[in-house]
Amino acid sequence: MASNALASFVALALLVAATGCSSVRASGVATGPTRLPPRLGPVAVYAAGYPVGGTDLGVVQVRASQSEATIDTLLPVFVRKVAQLGGNAAVIEKVEARFEVSTHTHVESYTYPCGFYTCIGTRSYPVAGEVMTLVMQGRAVTVPASTPESTLATPPPPGGAAPAPSSPATQPGVGL
Questions:
Q1: Is residue 60 part of a domain?
Q2: Which of 24, 88, 141, 176 has the fewest CB atoms within 10 Å distance of its CB?
Q3: Containing domain of residue 60, as a range?
């Protein structure tokens, strides 16, 4: 009986250790009548406007706190949520940092002399700290295949540099 309890405890401890503690949270909700299967291909990112001819599929929000609250952390999660809704374009509508003061109770033990013995005491006190949360909100969109590739802003690979923008004279259909 004790070995089963120990095995259950070890399995639970391994599960908790494997999942880790992450503050990154994401949600995607389909809002339009169009429902598509999850996308496996690339997803274009639009941060300065809505793609021409795009069809709205849903709303996406990702958030993270403290050290995980970076664009580098949130953007891949945002794109993944858009792909899960079937979108081939991610429209970022808002990125904001929220700061909140959070109070929690800190408990500590201490020792002190009491006669010929050492006694142990416990004290607790409130500790306030500021928590930053970065929130990225936007939409999952599907853009028809007839849209010229020159209008798509494909994100750079993870850890890579962004490609240099091409000049208008070298884009297809644009000339002087």
A1: yes
A2: 176
A3: 20-99+131-143
pLDDT at 163 over 50: no
> Which has the closest alpha carbon to 68: 128, 134, 137, 18?
134
User: Does residue 155 lie in a domain region?
Assistant: no
CA angle 169, 145, 32 (to 5 degrees): 125
- Answer yes or no: are the C-beta atoms of 93 and 137 closer than 8 Å: yes
Give the lowest-confidence range in 32-36, 76-80, 171-175: 171-175
List, in sequence order, the alpha helices (H) in the chain: 2-19, 71-84
Q: Is the pLDDT of residue 21 over 90?
A: no
Q: In Å, what is the CA distance from 21 to each residue of 15, 65, 68, 149?
A: 11, 12, 11, 39
Q: What is the CATH number of the domain that holds 92?
A: 3.30.110.70
Q: Is residue 55 in some structural domain? A: yes
Please say if the pLDDT value at position 88 is more than 60.
yes
User: How many Å apart are CA 63 and CA 53, to the nearest integer?
Assistant: 28
Q: What is the largest CA-CA distance in the chain?
A: 95
Q: Report the mean per-residue pLDDT for the chain.
A: 79
As a whole number of angstroms, the distance between CA 43 and CA 79 comes to 7
Tally of structural domains, the chain: 1
Residue 151, in any domain of the structure: no
